[in-house]
Amino acid sequence: MTHTDTVLVVGEALIDIVERDGADAEHVGGSPANVAVGIARQGVSASLLTRLGRDDRGRRIADQVTASGAGIHASSWTDAATSTARARLRADGSAEYDFDIVWELDAAAAEAAAGAASVVHSGSIALFLQPGGEVALATLERAREAGRVVTVDPNVRPALVGDDPRPVAERAFAAATLVKLSDEDAEALYPGVLAAQVLETIAALGPQVVVMTRGGEGALALGASGHVEVAPLRVDVADTIGAGDAFMASLIASLVDDARLLTGDADALHRALRRAVVTAGITVSRPGANPPTRTEVDAAL
After folding, report:
1. CATH code, 145
2. Is 1 among the domain residues?
3. CB of 228 within 8 A of CB of 273?
C-alpha cells in the first residue's frame, strides 16, 4: 500500500463535554472521528463516514476533521442534533461517559464508500448501537470479502453495548484483518482470561494481527511470527482521552506504510507497535483527543 491509498473510517463523531474542576469544556470526539483525524495527521488519506447534525456542534466537528486533512463523506449530514458524550474525569485522568447519541447509517452509501477505499476501519459505539451497528458490521464483512484490509477497535462502552457485547465484537473480529483492543475491552469481553489467551482467541476468528494496549504497561501483539511486546512512552499524563484512538490511527498508518506488518514480519510489527505507543504517549501528555502529527512522532522515536 502507498500514501495514495484511502482509509475509510466508519463510526460516530460527537462532542465530548468534559467536566473538570466544576466547569464544562467541549472537545470534538467520538472514537472513529478521532481515528480519522489521527490517520490524516500521519499523512495518510482518510475519509470519515459518520452522522453529523447541521448545527454548530456538527460544523465544529467537521471543521476539526477536515483541518486535519481528512474528509467527511457527504452522506454523513443529517437534520437531527449532533451527538454528545459527557465525560467525568477520575483522579487518575481516565474518564467515565454518559452518552446522548443516535446512530444511523445509509447502507448504500457505506457500501459505496468502502468500495472506494483500500482500508476500512470501524469500532466503538458504531458496531453496537442500532440501527447503524448492523450496517457498520455488514460493511466490514463485505469489505473483507472484497479483499480490503479491515481494521477493528471494539472500544467497548459498557453503558451502551448491552449485557453481552461479545457476539457483536466477535462478528467484527471475524471480518477484520487487524484487531486492536484495550485491556479494559478484553476484560469486558473475556473476563478473567489472560492477555495472551485473549489474543489467541481473537486470532482464531480470522484476523492476521491482534494487538492489546495495556496503558502504562505498553502493548502486546500476536501475529504470524508470534507474540511481540513493547514498553510504553513515559510521559506526564494530562488525561487519557483519545489515547487508544491515536494508537489505532498509528497502526493503520503503519499498515499503509508497510504491508509486511500483516505478513508475519516480526520487525515490522515491532516497529508499528513502538510507533503506536509513542503516538499514544504524546496524546495523553496533552488535554483531550489531540493526536500528534507524523513529524512529532518521528521526533519522539
Report:
1. 3.40.1190.20
2. no
3. yes
